[in-house]
Inverse folding.
């Protein structure tokens, strides 16, 4: 049975045009594709036999050859601040985590943001990040990325039928730009009217700083938000924190950011984790302000979330406020990221390969 599920194609992997031609090859009229998409993405149904405008025979035929999502929810945790973390089991028994955050009034949220994973694990080895500790396993398909949002969308429907995921951040497990093609496809599908219909401007991709991919992304005609995990203002510190810096040092990274800005006109985000006594000095703030010159940047200061193995501590709030104050005084747009989901290990950098601590649950 399990084996058979694995052979099935996944609806979440298709664009509408692709599903139309796929069905036509099986002599199923193309308009059925639109009906199926409507059931899946708008009504949030999870089984073909719930698609009541399809004949029973067609429902059966579809269920024989297709699955709707390539992933299944295997665990759900909810934080006291309303943040929800889902553990998804993939068809090959790997697992990834995704997080849903609501902003504003919980009964009528202004924003409902899903943080998606793009890889099982991550090979980039940043020293402050829990995901990096387990190493890299594999890339996720576009369907496995979209499925994470669909799972939340289905859960939201149960709370209130009008709730919709409004924003997506590619900030879960993995390095999105090392899974470039599937990530770009998934972004286009998120935006497609008949799929999630989410505006590009409400989609953020975060990268540790892969220079060639940043340059390629500048030509994809995707008006999304590109966020760069900067975290240090000198090569010597960045080399220690983020090994990728040895391959693409700061001057190349900043040049690529400038290129991205010039090509797209889109403001970038610099993410900067505040690490006690490591990168939270006045001199760091000065250098950071200089690095933002010549293009448009929003600096996001991130309180460090505890990862025991890392040995780092978060900077105290006073210091973070002063750091932010200096940047603002220099005319640099700066925000301190709101913390969400720390009590369920759902905050930035705390997602892990579930097998390591959760084998019994899968
Ligand atoms: N691989 C991508 C996206 C996933 S990480 C990247 O590195 O950008 C998402 C964000 O969480 C990144 O900015 C990352 O640096 C940050 N992060 C990682 N570990 C963290 C931690 N322990 N505390 C706070 N933020 C962390
Ligand atoms: Fe990978 Fe991003 Fe974590 Fe670095 S911070 S190890 S790139 S997930």
């Amino acid at each position: 049975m399990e084996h058979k599920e694995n052979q099935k194609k996944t609806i979440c992997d298709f664009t509408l045009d692709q599903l139309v031609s796929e069905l036509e090859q099986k002599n199923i009229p193309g308009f059925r594709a639109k009906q199926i998409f409507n059931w899946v993405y708008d009504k949030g149904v999870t089984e073909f036999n719930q698609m009541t405008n399809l004949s029973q025979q067609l429902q059966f035929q579809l269920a024989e050859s297709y699955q709707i999502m390539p992933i299944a929810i295997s665990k759900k945790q909810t934080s006291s601040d309303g943040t929800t973390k889902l553990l998804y089991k993939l068809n090959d028994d790997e697992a990834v985590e995704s997080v849903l955050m609501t902003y504003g009034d919980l009964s009528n949220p202004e924003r409902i943001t899903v943080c998606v994973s793009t890889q099982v694990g991550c090979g980039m080895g940043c020293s402050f990040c829990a995901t990096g500790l387990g190493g890299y396993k594999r890339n996720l398909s576009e369907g496995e990325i979209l499925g994470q949002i669909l799972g939340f969308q289905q859960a939201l429907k149960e709370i209130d039928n009008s709730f919709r995921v409004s924003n997506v951040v590619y900030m879960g497990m993995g390095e999105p730009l090392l899974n470039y093609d599937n990530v770009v496809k998934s972004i286009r599908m998120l935006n497609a009217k008949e799929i999630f219909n989410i505006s590009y401007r409400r989609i953020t991709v975060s990268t540790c700083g892969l220079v060639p991919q940043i340059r390629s992304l500048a030509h994809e005609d995707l008006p999304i938000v590109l966020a760069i995990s900067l975290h240090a203002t000198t090569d010597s510190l960045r080399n220690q924190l983020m090994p990728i810096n040895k391959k693409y040092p700061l001057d190349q990274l900043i040049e690529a950011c400038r290129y991205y800005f010039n090509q797209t006109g889109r403001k970038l985000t610099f993410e900067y984790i505040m690490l006690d006594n490591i990168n939270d000095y006045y001199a760091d703030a000065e250098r950071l302000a200089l690095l933002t010159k010549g293009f448009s940047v929003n600096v996001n200061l991130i309180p460090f979330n505890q990862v025991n193995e890392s040995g780092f501590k978060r900077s105290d709030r006073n210091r973070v406020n002063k750091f932010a104050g200096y940047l603002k005084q220099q005319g640099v747009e700066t925000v301190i990221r709101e913390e969400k989901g720390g009590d369920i290990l759902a905050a930035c950098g705390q997602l892990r390969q579930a097998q390591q601590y959760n084998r019994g649950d899968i």
